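Progress note, sequence design subtask.
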């Protein structure tokens, strides 16, 4: 099990993204989390591909791109070109597990890691086979679409189940959790078996970001 942090730029100062990225890198973040929204799969929109492309090389963290989009196949390729190291798409946005498998293979052929995410109402059992193909599973602990929401404890059981599957089969798959992470909920997620915690509003916009990062380790 790992103990990584992925600060989410969704809550960062959009006018100073480079400085916001370098700040969390200097405090030891291993991943930088980009939330991409298309206004269809979720109501909001966020960074465009040009913004991401301009900033994927200004640091050495893993560019962790979470695409909350209705057409992941097309969008994923744009973000591979933009410099993503890992792209996580939503299970709910693909028609079938075979379609998900095709996107995973496509990403691997391009030299990019592949992750799959499930929303709070999606059962973890849909990932039973896919967990063997992906590099990461992202468990959403809020409804995707915006920052600052309350952590949903139902995510914990999913994390525990995934941990069991992954350990039993010795799979090389990380478990990431996204939504409502703070000093308290992070402990529950780590205990349940999560490797990477995404945190946006708990970190960005605060003067004591370094201490806050330490509190979710
Ligand atoms: C929500 C995004 C998250 C968001 C988390 O749809 O996927 O990455 O930034 O925000 P907080 O940490 O504020 O819940
Ligand atoms: Zn996210």
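Output:
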């Amino acid at each position: 099990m790992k103990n990584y942090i992925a600060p989410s730029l969704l809550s960062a100062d959009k006018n100073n993204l480079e400085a916001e990225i370098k700040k969390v890198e200097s405090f030891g973040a291993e991943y930088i989390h980009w939330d991409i929204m298309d206004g269809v799969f979720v109501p909001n929109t966020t960074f465009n591909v040009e913004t991401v492309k301009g900033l994927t090389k200004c640091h050495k963290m893993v560019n962790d791109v979470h695409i909350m989009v209705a057409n992941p196949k097309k969008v994923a390729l744009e973000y591979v070109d933009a410099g993503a190291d890992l792209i996580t798409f939503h299970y709910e946005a693909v028609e079938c597990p075979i379609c998900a498998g095709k996107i995973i293979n496509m990403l691997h052929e391009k030299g990019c890691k592949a992750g799959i995410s499930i929303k709070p109402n999606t059962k973890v059992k849909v990932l039973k086979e896919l967990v063997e193909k992906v590099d990461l599973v992202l468990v959403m602990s809020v409804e995707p679409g915006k920052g600052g929401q309350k952590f949903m404890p139902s995510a914990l059981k999913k994390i525990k189940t995934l941990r069991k599957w992954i350990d039993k089969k010795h799979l090389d798959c990380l478990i990431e959790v996204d939504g409502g992470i703070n000093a308290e909920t992070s402990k529950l997620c780590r205990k349940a078996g999560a490797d990477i915690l995404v945190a946006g509003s708990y970190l960005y916009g605060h003067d004591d970001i370094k201490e806050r990062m330490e509190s979710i380790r």
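The first strand starts at residue 4 and ends at 7. Work on this subtask will continue into the next period as scheduled.
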